[in-house]
Amino acid sequence: MTRENDPADAPSAGSPDPSGRLPDPVLADVSLALFHLRRIWAKPDLMKRIRAQTDAGPDGRPLQLSNLMVVHAVAGLTAEDRTEVTVGAVADRLEIDPSTASRLVGHALDAGLISRRPSPVDARRANLGLTAAGRRVKQVADRFRRAYLDELMADWTPAERADFARLLTRFAEAAVRAPMDPDGVDKIFEVAQADCADWPGGPPDHS
């Protein structure tokens, strides 16, 4: 079992924060729910089902999660009716650095899921778009996600679904505006070590 899937890492409703105050129990419930959701969405079932309904790319490699990320990014950017969809725009959409975005876009190109043509704005840049295979992959992924959500909320009323969608969207937008500190994990162990002088050998190395 890897550390990221260790139940011991799940947030505890009774653990004090670094200031010594007990957390709001509602916020503790939200944190625990997000922890469980992360584990659910990380499961490979969706990719297995999509692969079963799509062909491997021209290079023979099966569909990868990174391919799906690029497909959704390009589809979303295209839906905004932009003049061009560049690698830089994909990087911003996925919140990754440009070099990583360039590599992932290259893989999606090799898989035949996106196309590249000269940008109408600057011929030195590539204008990205979905191929027929890319559109098919997105349709299959969207259908499975909707079916899964519909199953999870089968006993919810329409009003409950609408309220959940509104509040979850509000929560996600707030998270985008104020992302979590990437150094947060290191700070957790720094504070824990400071509070526990007898920690044998110091805190674990997570580099």
Describe the 3D structure.
This protein has a two-stranded antiparallel sheet with strand order 1-2. It has helices at 25-41, 45-53, 65-79, 87-94, 98-110, 132-152, 158-177, 184-195, and strands at residues 114-118, 126-130. By secondary structure, the protein is mainly alpha-helical. Helix 3 packs across helix 4 and helix 4 (87-94) crosses helix 5. A hairpin with a 7-residue loop joins strand 1 (114-118) and strand 2. It has 8 helices and 2 strands, in the order αααααββααα. The radius of gyration is 21 Å and the shape is globular.
Structure summary:
The protein has 207 residues and is mostly helical.
